[in-house]
């Protein structure tokens, strides 16, 4: 895996916490000799802390570029790609991970702001990033080369009450991913879906508008996945031989079976 990742440039959205953060660390640990990581999210301080942690753990073989970026802002996404320093432009892997859930309301009561923020981040944000990065992949010889790894969710496959907008947004991610894979069938661009079940991160804190005790109650009495469990699958997927596409991974804790 280290050999196949060596020298690559990996871009991760939502790298300031949870699955995105663990994925950055897992890439760095897997290919410590030579890797470039572009880490994006809205919380720049957390990205800088992560850069320092990676430097401390694996040394200078992994270069890290932290960038403040809101994926739902299409102009900002275009500007970010246009302004990348020359040596950071040759991106090989895009991990579209930024996403969130907000609220547990039934459909008639869902707040307009929650609907907008979930769709503009989970769906439009992911499409913004894909449209911005794909041209870099398609410029490569033989129809193009690169990996787009989209984080959907078990919620995109198994909708539940009180999650209608979030579930719909993740079903949209899944459908977009499958369409894109078919559009790019003649290229060497791999379009991949990673669908986690319950993972303990800041996800539930965001769902309950910052109420940590409500978030903790979600995990009481069960053993959720850790973000590392998902990070390992993402890095495994990105480090397969070029002709091997791990198109779809569904990973859940056994209480969710
Ligand atoms: P976290 O809340 O820990 O992480 C979410 C990340 O997304 C943060 O880094 C956050 O950074 C970033 N983010 C949110 N909105 C934006 C935005 N507009 N622009 C850029 N970055 C943004 O949750 P998880 O790690 O659990 O979530 C990661 C992905 O995994 C999400 O897509 C989620 O839907 C999916 N998932 C999670 C599951 C779970 O049980 N935890 C289950 C299935 C899927 P910042 O706030 O700094 O911008």
TrEMBL record:
The organism of origin for this protein: Clonostachys byssicola
Family: Belongs to the short-chain dehydrogenases/reductases (SDR) family.
Source species, domain of life: Eukaryota
Keywords: NADP, Oxidoreductase
Tagged with keyword Iron: no
Molecular function per GO: oxidoreductase activity, acting on the CH-OH group of donors, NAD or NADP as acceptor
Taxonomic lineage of the native organism: Eukaryota, Fungi, Dikarya, Ascomycota, Pezizomycotina
Domain Ketoreductase: 8-202
Name by which UniProt lists this protein: Ketoreductase domain-containing protein
